[in-house]
Amino acid sequence: MFFEVAKNLECLSISDCENLPSLSITTETEMQEANASGTIVGPVSVVKQIPSFEKLLVIDVLRCPNLKDLTVTSFAPNLEFMQIMFCDGLEKVIATTDLVGNSRETPFAKLRMLWLVNLPLLTSICDETLPFPVLNKVIVLSCPRLKSLPVNSSRAEGPKIKTWTEENWWNGLQWENEATVNTFATDFDISSFFKDKSQIRL
User: Fold this and answer.
1) Which residues contact 201 (CB under 8 A, 6 or more apart)?
2) Residue 31 bridge partners (DSSP)
């Protein structure tokens, strides 16, 4: 019943959920494998078929300190805006196994804006590099363990991605190649982002 309703969601906003460990979806086959190996940690949602949240455009997650991942984003092919802020325990957004095993389409294919703010344990947005064909605005602040942005060199053919971040963090990033670095137009003046109210979605 939940997925019948959720598939019509356009905006998913979650805040102040202290006991939420994951936004994950698991098939019956995967659950059986996990039971056999003893790798289940915390509650999961089990479905017979992988859902697709085709109408979901916005994901906003705020102050969920025990949230470890946001696997649900790999099931939202039309996602345009994602904001994740003040989630102290978040370690990854989606992982390679989620991409290969679950998603029917390339994640973030329509993502235009990405905000990652105050995520001290975040190490990965995605383990695989992706084209992010329409991404045009990124803000990354206080994510010290995030060492790469998973944009591949095919994006170099498109318009530059305007990025606001801290200079020390930016200088420590690891890149696929020089062409990928040139995909970004970086601004270390964070105040300029907030001066233009048209930047702010929520």
Assistant:
1) 58, 81, 83, 113
2) none
Nearest alpha-carbon partner for 108 in 118, 98, 120 = 98
Please state, in angstroms and rounded to a whole number, the distance separating the CA atoms of residues 180 and 153. Answer: 5
Distance CA 137, CA 19 (A): 31
pLDDT of residue 66: 92
Spatial contact of 54 and 4, defined as CB atoms under 8 Å apart? no
- If DSSP states are collapsed to H, E and C, what string results for 4-15? HHHCCCCEEEEE
The Cα 174–Cα 176 span in angstroms is: 7
Of 40-54, 82-96, 125-139, 177-191, the poorest mean pLDDT is in 40-54
pLDDT digits (tens, 9 = 90+) for 71-120: 778 888 899 999 999 999 999 998 654 444 455 567 899 999 999 999 99
